[in-house]
Amino acid sequence: MKINFIKINVTILMVGILFSACTNGIKNDTDRDTTIKDTAKFVSVKPAGPAPEWGKTIKPEMQAVMEKLNSYGDKPTEQLNATDARKNHTPADAVMDLLKENNIVLPSSKVDTTGKDIEVNGAKIHVRIYTPRAAEEPFPLIVYYHGGGFVMANLDAYNASAQALAEQAGAVVIAVAYRLAPENKFPTAHNDAFAAYEWAVKNAVNLKADPAKIAVAGESAGANLAANVSIMARDKHIMIPVHQVLIYPIAQANMETESYKMYAHAKPLNKAMMGWFTQQYLNSELEAQDPKISLVNANLKGLPPTTLITAEIDPLNNDGIMLTNKLKEAGVKVDHKNYEGVTHEFFGMAALVPEAKQAQAFAAAQLKTAFK
């Protein structure tokens, strides 16, 4: 399903999601009335049935979103090819329906957005640039990478997360539409991610940003990319980000961890889907052990202070915990928070899920401290 501009003000804001239409950015991005900062009244949505077997501890609001997503009856992602999988309903659709049902009105945006195509590795990719209206120039800068298992999703799908970071951290955010698999195999997304970071460093002043205050952030596959950008910056001796925000990162290849077993059938991400993503992006099973994919095998020394966010009901929960421990062993300062009762992709759902609002505030506070 493609999200059009008529629906964008309501739809794309809500959810940083894993499963969305695959459009590699929009060439004429415009300002959108799509913020999810404090509202006068937080509307609590209620689930219709009991907690699912795969998530007995799920919070009511999170369950309501998952119930709505399940109601569409889409075929499982892992049973489809990438083109068809990208047409499935998404958590964004579920949130949009719940917003309509509960008559939730969102406040005005506090950022301006523009789109730009940039040259990377002999190709062009799209970036969306979020610039705060009220903050004082020069702004700090965040390079943000969306999730989607390196296969799905786009800038629209993760607009909520990128915009929230721009508004709450008072920073310019560059959201990167790296090329996707299976059309573009490993390590294309990783190379695109670093090339976009290099572009951000070189163009910071033109973006009204301070080139000495650049951070990286990402969700799921995007968190993996963000960490790799920090590693590559260190190894290539260019400016290392002052901070990295890693939200439920893909950090290792073992799908027999405790969280993979416990949440093998969870929504919106499950074990079978992770296997499917791996097959779509990698050229061989051996590449799953590459330090770029299995960050726990990488040299993590000298990386920037890290904020790491995990969700309880998530096959990748242990990935985040393992990466936290490995970073600490390497001497990296890490602040890790695990949010109970929520699933993978919760971070962008702040209009409906209280834990998402808390997580966004935590990430923004960590970034503001780093920028000072």
Structure description:
- There is one protein chain.
- The protein has 372 residues and is an alpha/beta fold.
- It has one domain: Alpha/Beta hydrolase fold, catalytic domain (Rossmann fold), CATH 3.40.50.
- The chain is built from eleven helices and eight strands.
- Strands 1-2-4-3-5-6-7-8 form an eight-stranded mixed beta sheet, with helices on both faces.
- The relative contact order is 0.16.
- Mean pLDDT is 89; it is low at 1-28 and 30-40.
Outline of the structure:
With 372 residues, the chain is α/β, with parallel strands linked by helices. It has eleven helices and eight strands.
Features:
single chain, 8-stranded mixed β-sheet, 18% strand, Rossmann fold, 372 residues, alpha/beta, 11 helices, globular
Query: Major sheet, described briefly?
Result: 8 strands, mixed
Amino- and carboxy-terminal Cα gap? 41 Å
- Helix percentage range: 25-40%
Low-confidence stretches: 1-28, 30-40
Mean pLDDT: 89
Q: Return the CATH class.
A: Alpha Beta
CATH superfamily: Alpha/Beta hydrolase fold, catalytic domain
Order of helices and strands: HHHHEEEHEHEHEHHEHEH
Question: Into which percentage range does the β-strand content fall?
Answer: 15-25%
Number of strands: 8
The count of domains is 1
Which fold does the CATH topology refer to? Rossmann fold
Q: Taking Cα atoms only, what radius of gyration do you get, to the nearest Å?
A: 19 Å
What is the count of helical runs? 11
The strands making up the biggest β-sheet line up spatially as 1-2-4-3-5-6-7-8
Shape: globular
Estimated structural class: alpha/beta
Tell me what the CATH architecture is: 3-Layer(aba) Sandwich
Pfam families: Abhydrolase_3
Protein name: Alpha/beta hydrolase fold domain-containing protein
GO molecular function: hydrolase activity
Domain Alpha/beta hydrolase fold-3: 142-347
